[in-house]
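Weekly sync notes, structure subgroup
Attendees: PM, AL, DS (notes)

Item 1: joint prediction request from the bench team. They want all two components modeled as one assembly rather than separately. Inputs as received:
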Amino acid sequence: MKPLNSLNFSGGPGALPESVLLQVQQAILEVPEVGLSVLGISHRSDWFAAVVQETEDNIRALLGLDASYHVLLLQGGATQQFSMVPMTLLRGQQAPAQYLQTGYWSGKVLPEARLQGDIEVLWSGQSCGFSRLPADDELAFSADAPYLHYVSNETVEGLQFNRVLGREDVPRVCDMSSDFLSRPCEAERFALIYAHAQKNIGPAGVTVVLVKDALLQDAPTDLPAFLDYKQQIKAHSNLNTPPVFSIYVTLLVTRWLLHEVGGLANMDQINRQKAALLYQALDDSEGFYRGRAAVPDRSLMNVAMTLPSVALEQAFLAESALAGFSGLAGHRAVGGIRASIYNALSLTAVQRLTEFMQDFRRQHLS
Amino acid sequence: MKPLNSLNFSGGPGALPESVLLQVQQAILEVPEVGLSVLGISHRSDWFAAVVQETEDNIRALLGLDASYHVLLLQGGATQQFSMVPMTLLRGQQAPAQYLQTGYWSGKVLPEARLQGDIEVLWSGQSCGFSRLPADDELAFSADAPYLHYVSNETVEGLQFNRVLGREDVPRVCDMSSDFLSRPCEAERFALIYAHAQKNIGPAGVTVVLVKDALLQDAPTDLPAFLDYKQQIKAHSNLNTPPVFSIYVTLLVTRWLLHEVGGLANMDQINRQKAALLYQALDDSEGFYRGRAAVPDRSLMNVAMTLPSVALEQAFLAESALAGFSGLAGHRAVGGIRASIYNALSLTAVQRLTEFMQDFRRQHLS
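Output from the run, pasted for the record:
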């Protein structure tokens, strides 16, 4: 059996909603309101200005953000933000910025930040194999830090914060690449949020940045234009040719979230049901499927697990592929099995996976 | 009448070949050899590694380049290269790099380069309103310059070089964004060529960089990873999630160039026919359609012109839109009319435009 989009549990780029894919398919030949292929429309057209504006408005509406936040649609992925954040906020500062190392991705941020200035790793999960997140009493937030940086959801280990960290008087910067727009997130408590699109909100190639205007008051003025938040803001994300296609698809996903799903509270409820089903399957498996993450820190987006042996894991991947599932291999850094259940993955798909897991376990226990 | 893809003379993002659009349309729901939507396939899959490899191979084959050149597929557009080039080649150098200012785009490069080091503007067309390109005897190339930078085709003014500039002993860096893969270009005489995709070779969101291995010997080692050519080379353009979709479409365009068009010599011949038809229409119009560019420097990609009055230009745009043409407005920096005739624009489309131009002139002269 061929892999099915509806059973694509990829860690990213992730599956997109079918209703969005159908609209995109039409737009490849002709965007209805324009008459041209989406791939051949000028980024200086009125149509594209309206696309950017509606995408911004939809993101603001979904998160309940006011005009004190700018919404940017940039290139370069979260990786570009690993550098843009400290280039903007760390250079010339006295005190170090505080960073949390809670897994693979927050670890990737650290060397890039260190190239730009002094940072302090406030807490690291390295000694516990990134199996859990820190408790509040393990975190000594400094009042002097120019900002606090953390990653809200670690895709590789399947860890997710269920609370907002840090002090109200120190700017919070958060990499929400893998759970942005999957649930309400108290966005107004953050100074800067960034998220690449390719998990929950669109194709690879565009990154959403929300930034509070006041945060940029003392930003350096000698940065390359494309790395300068202020110049990007002034240009309405159209400083140079933006990734028109990826932004258009992101617009369609935000419309889907607003008008089909009915907002982030509804999306959260569906995502919780999906995660609950899968974790129940783990917990009912008598140790056959072992979650990587400590129970209180389990991610609603990425269910990372191991099986009793590598041979069983390989059999699981082979048999699930034959059944039409895809994307279930764990991240190359850790191996094992991972089911990524981003917004577009349906409850039905998760039900089918849990049934497959039960069958597989039954067959391989006997 | 609605605008037609086949009559889309946009300055960029430009039209793509119809046979490519049909394949892309299918891939939105299902890439045939994978079974999944191209928007939901992992960038770490074997399939995507093969996409990158074949795109590189096709570009090498089209240009006759050997393995001493790396082919990179990056984000950030030509604008990112405006900075990456001097970050890599200019920092710490004694002598200034030499830059040519031949139009709007080569002018945009200068402030970004100056942020990174000392540059000399070897020649500027500003005093002649960028109506022509320099002759050889106007250019004093320095043997000490770390590199020479120029733009092969200026889209706004419609100027294009018909020769390779500079000395053999000084690395040539060329922004070929608007004529890359439109003709043979003696690529082996350049040390670094960059080109965003959205004119001739794909959708906005990906930029091709060809760089000679030897050029990077003394490159700095303290650049952010995504701005470091060496790290991008080591990661095979997969340092962080690349723009999978834009790269896939670029692959399809390179296949079209190789297997349908039959290579760059053929493409060049078609492009010359298209340009000849249009310039003939200008030259036969008794000054009604006036080209911006001096005759010897006329671009094969962008035919920029003015009409006797702004009112006539507006009438031209309105009437051509009613006839199904689009993208004919000149760049916002200069106004007027511009027909961009990139690879995917057919000879038939250009014939229809010249017929329209003749009709329009006849009607508005009487």
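Discussion: Residues 20 and 252 of chain A are 6 Å apart (CA to CA).
Action: AL to compare against the crosslinking data before next sync.
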